[in-house]
Design goal:
- By secondary structure, the chain is mostly helical.
- The protein is built from 7 helices and no strands.
- The longest helix has 40 residues.
- The protein has one domain.
- Helix 1 runs antiparallel to helix 3, helix 3 runs antiparallel to helix 4 and helix 5 packs antiparallel against helix 7.
């Protein structure tokens, strides 16, 4: 929808007040066009088949994901956060989303470099849960538009938080289940 670059398409219709700000516009287009790479490369990181059969490819795609989030898409999202619709509440929600996304991704890389693969996996789950907020934000937008009587800005304020906090809660539950399963397996092996 954003090709060719048109200033009155989709989300940009709501951002007319910021279109004249060059770094905001650059951040917007950067975020829009590079987020897809984060979604795709991040998704591949959870394939056990890829990890075992092609560990070098897993590693290379992981580095692409990390570089994208830490140096391109994440910072662009952070810049956009300061201009979020819905006032201070929405801005804080999106700023926290961006900061946590960058932090969890950096920690995933750090843990992988330290060969602490259990924590690497946990941080990647958290990071990718926040990557998926690109999708969940849009799903919540449709749900609230269809099933609530809230005004657009009230919906937006709720979605600015719900779109990523629920993802992170689900990620933490997944991590807890993985740890529990690992612990049960470890106890089973030591009992033999």
């Amino acid at each position: 929808m954003y090709i060719p670059l048109k200033p009155d398409t989709g989300f940009l219709q709501l951002k007319q007040a910021y279109l004249h700000i060059d770094f905001w516009r650059a951040a917007f287009y950067t975020h829009v066009f590079t987020s897809l790479f984060a979604l795709l490369t991040g998704f591949t990181q959870f394939s056990k088949k890829l990890l075992t059969a092609r560990p070098m490819l897993h590693r290379k795609l992981g580095y692409l994901y990390v570089i994208n989030v830490l140096f391109i898409t994440g910072p662009a999202g952070l810049i956009m956060s300061f201009y979020a619709n819905g006032g201070v509440s929405s801005r804080i929600g999106f700023i926290l989303l961006s900061v946590w996304w960058i932090y969890f991704t950096a920690m995933a890389l750090y843990k992988a470099l330290k060969k602490d693969f259990n924590n690497h996996r946990a941080f990647m789950i958290r990071s990718y849960a926040l990557t998926l907020s690109a999708i969940s934000l849009r799903v919540w937008k449709v749900i609230f538009a269809e099933f609530s009587n809230l005004g657009p800005m009230d919906r937006y304020r709720i979605i600015a938080w719900l779109g990523w906090t629920l993802n992170l809660l689900i990620a933490e539950c997944m991590i807890a289940l993985l740890l529990k399963r690992k612990s049960i397996f470890k106890n089973y092996l030591t009992a033999k």
